[in-house]
Design brief:
2 copies of one chain form a homodimer.
Chain A: E1 4-6, H1 8-15, E2 20-24, E3 29-31, H2 32-48, E4 56-60, H3 65-77, E5 80-84, H4 90-99, E6 104-107, E7 117-120, H5 121-125, E8 137-139, E9 143-149, E10 157-162, H6 163-177, E11 185-187, H7 194-206, E12 210-212, H8 218-227, E13 232-235, H9 237-246, E14 258-261, H10 268-276, E15 281-287, E16 292-297, E17 311-312, E18 317-324, E19 327-333, H11 345-351, E20 352-353, E21 356-365, E22 371-375, E23 381-383, E24 386-388, H12 390-397, E25 403-413, E26 417-426, H13 432-440, E27 451-454, H14 468-476
Parallel strand pairs in A: 2-12, 4-5, 4-6, 5-9, 6-7, 11-12, 11-13, 13-14, 14-15, 26-27
Antiparallel strand pairs in A: 1-8, 2-3, 9-10, 15-16, 16-17, 18-19, 19-21, 20-21, 21-22, 23-24, 25-26
Helix pairs in contact in A: 1-2, 2-3, 6-7, 8-9
Catalytic activity (chains A, B): 2-succinylbenzoate + ATP + CoA = 2-succinylbenzoyl-CoA + AMP + diphosphate
Domain AMP-dependent synthetase/ligase (chains A, B): 10-342
Function (chains A, B): Converts 2-succinylbenzoate (OSB) to 2-succinylbenzoyl-CoA (OSB-CoA).
């Protein structure tokens, strides 16, 4: 049966009106009452544009409290927030805007050329308010956000998150970490990713402040953790590495209880270094489809289960299927898992098997039930916490007539974990510079291959599939 | 959409196999793995009797780990646990057994003459195991327990609790209290009441031990809290009073973070006394239908909101309707609220209005949204945390031919909060002793009137309703 709960921000503003919801590095802070009131005013101004129940509205912004207010405002209208990645090119953004049928995009500042009506947060604030009904309850089955993930076909798919997905994700995390009413969660991950967004929803559900940083700067993050009573921070490995490097001989305070580490595996040396700085690390496995972490390893097991991603959170389940010698595709299930991709029934049907989400990643579980991820889904490259699918880059390359075929692999990088490298078989005269110039218009900067190698033909196996391992061997040579 | 989660005990046994689930005062303890295994074995033995999905099985026991195992065993079979109050007479028990269509009753020891097949826990343990499917998931919409409440008609009604009701209750409580993985919850309330049962479900959901006491003894409870690392205890006001009386000059340890107080209002003097003993008291309002607390007042507000029951828990809502001068019936809504009474559609329809549960209690909310209960539902008498409905006693009295009519009121008691007192208009020759003798066969001891007064006629108003206030005036005279 479909459950409803009171609108979570209205509720928290009622339970803890004067408590801080968002704190900024400049010392400014917004209470739950203020966040509710700002969001409700913002909602009534958005209504003036015709945004209403079910409208899909793009949100394109760096981390800022205005962005959080905009997202809550959309929830008051029953509209859907399509969270857009600021690192994407206009072409990539417009693909998502068309796919999600987005008529309005809310931005921090004008710039991108988008196929939609674009308003800055400031422009919205200057609008008159329309007297409309604001949601007093949230139906857990209603879709709240759409976040695109590229996936294996080269075409991004819009992952739908219901209010229930976000709710269960927050509750699952609480059952794992516990909840101290004095918790304060540092938010430096981009809010347009589910890992960043979820911090602001947990803040509202738990009644704790999120400490918002606009961008990652190791010294600023360390300073915040050392002096601002922060107890939890979400990060990706590349960030954790920079944090430990910048700490010198300092250690994190006792009240700091965890770094929740997502976006790819952490090396043993990084974990050991974190330990010397008294940084408890919860490694996790998750993806946009699981509304952030779904499998988590507590610091207690960091050393006796090295390389493991841990166990599925309380309401979640995991299985390996089909299993050959114990290794197989990782399937997950639970109320935080998306119900599917927006307007893409075939992708949804391909991804779900009897209610289980097929992650595409390969792994196994040990006798104690701990998950080990052996291989990332379909050659996924994780670079600085961002997912890059080779197929997406290959699709762009294949549009050039001078290229016969191309393959992309992830290469280890000390700084980013991995970076993409392209192998190209020419079909005519071209240069690496020409190819890069073309790609810059179609791919976000972080997706651009760091090297382009020209080869005579791609290594293929008997069934004509590209053998990426051989490409890596070529590089080694 | 109907959500499923992994079976909560199996899951906790997987996440924290070696952690203690139940601790006893004799020092014995059961880990989550042991609790799971015992419950699964017990389930397979119950299956031997033919107990299966949907079977309604009575559980009649004082607080004991066997009782907890039996309840979890029923969940593995998908059977429904009908929790029977050990204080009831055989007649009262059989009413519930017939009403819920119970074929089997599990007891601690033989004794009561029940209209069902009765097995002790020990007898079950001696049975062979049947190889049956044990639930691996819990569908949150499935009914897990039925607990009877008397209500206003004099006939008890079976309140159905789904797994979801219990789940949401546990999550709501966690959002209110926070959750420390070192929490330990003292369980001395009867497990046959929802307030006691819920402690053992929270234990499994949170992964924390329940400290089980078979019966209330102020010195034993205090000793446990002072020496056993207990952080939370559930109690009713009469218990809290005895605990503070027995404490002498001692105070509770700093790590003890709350008494969750249910089952009726606490006096200001009791709250002040608790404070001198460093006992943080969370007063609450709830009932069987709300799966324990649904409105809670934190200790922060005990003094600035004296007499208030607090605010509805995060996923819950409250309204006063219809409101005259701000006072009206208290209606509540939320995913912890029962979907209705077993096999009693008319009572369910009477109780629910547009998805809201009409509590029958009168109250108002102040400008900050804090609830004040003005009058308990339909003259409800709360004696030592047990609910007594005057109508139930009156119905029994009316069966005696020598009684023309009778009315029961609650009278203040230092020891019990309230006790019932009966006013009887005779129809022939009888004595108070005769009447008491008759009632003893039909009413639990705690429901027996402490006094019987013979009067010439009952005071009635213009519409012929009994004016109970006038009966209280008679007593005062």
């Amino acid at each position: 049966m479909s459950e409803s709960i009171p609108h979570w921000l209205t509720k928290q503003a009622d339970l803890a009106p004067g408590k801080m919801a968002i704190e900024h590095e400049d010392g400014l802070a917004i209470s739950f009452r203020e966040l509710k009131e700002s969001s409700q005013h913002f909602a009534k101004k958005l209504a003036q544009l015709g945004i209403t129940t079910g409208s899909r509205v793009g949100v394109l912004s760096a981390n800022h409290s205005d962005m959080v207010i905009a997202v809550h405002a959309l929830s008051y209208l029953g509209a859907v927030a399509v969270m857009l990645n600021t690192r994407l090119t206009d072409n990539e953004l417009n693909y998502q805007i068309h796919d999600a049928d987005v008529a309005f995009v809310l931005v921090q500042e004008h710039g991108p050329q988008l196929d939609a009506s674009v308003y800055t947060f400031s422009e919205i604030k200057k609008l008159e308010e329309k007297d409309v009904f604001l949601q007093t309850e949230l139906n857990l089955d209603d879709v709240f956000t759409i976040i695109y993930t590229s996936g294996t076909t080269g075409f991004p798919k819009g992952v739908m998150h219901t209010y229930g997905n976000h709710w269960w994700s927050a509750v699952s995390s609480m059952l794992n970490f516990g909840l101290d009413k004095d918790d304060k969660w540092l938010a430096v991950l981009p809010i347009f990713h589910v890992g960043g967004l979820s911090i602001f929803l947990r803040s509202v559900i738990y009644g704790i402040p999120a400490y918002l940083l606009e961008k990652f700067d190791a010294n600023k993050v360390n300073e915040a953790i050392l002096t601002k009573d922060i107890t939890i921070a979400s990060a990706v490995p590349v960030m954790l590495k920079k944090l430990t490097d910048a700490l010198g001989s300092q250690t994190y305070p006792d009240k700091f209880r965890s770094v929740l580490l997502g976006g790819g595996p952490a090396s043993r040396s990084l974990l050991e270094k974190a330990r010397t700085h008294k940084i408890p690390v919860f490694q996790s496995f998750g993806m946009t489809e699981t509304s952030s972490q779904i499998v988590t390893l507590s610091p207690d097991h960091a050393l006796d289960k090295p390389g493991s991603s841990g166990k599925p959170l309380f309401p979640a389940q995991l299985k390996i299927d089909p299993s050959e010698n114990g290794i197989g595709e990782i399937l997950v299930k639970g109320p935080m898992v998306t119900k599917g991709y927006f307007n893409n029934k075939s992708a949804t049907e391909r991804t779900f098997v009897d209610g289980w989400l097929a992650t595409g990643d390969l792994g196994y579980t040990d006798d104690d039930g701990f998950l080990y991820v052996v291989d990332r889904r379909k050659d996924l490259i994780i670079s600085g916490g961002e997912n890059i699918y080779p197929s997406e880059i290959e699709t762009v390359l294949s549009r050039l007539n001078v290229i016969r075929e191309a393959a992309v692999v992830g290469v280890k990088s000390d700084e980013w974990g991995q970076v993409p490298v392209a192998f190209v078989v020419k079909n005519g005269e071209t240069t690496a510079e020409e190819i890069m110039e073309f790609m810059k218009n179609h791919l976000a900067k972080y997706k651009l291959p760091k090297e382009i190698h020209f080869i005579d033909k791609l290594p293929r196996n008997a069934s004509n599939k590209i053998v990426r391992a051989k490409l890596l061997d070529l590089l080694a040579e």
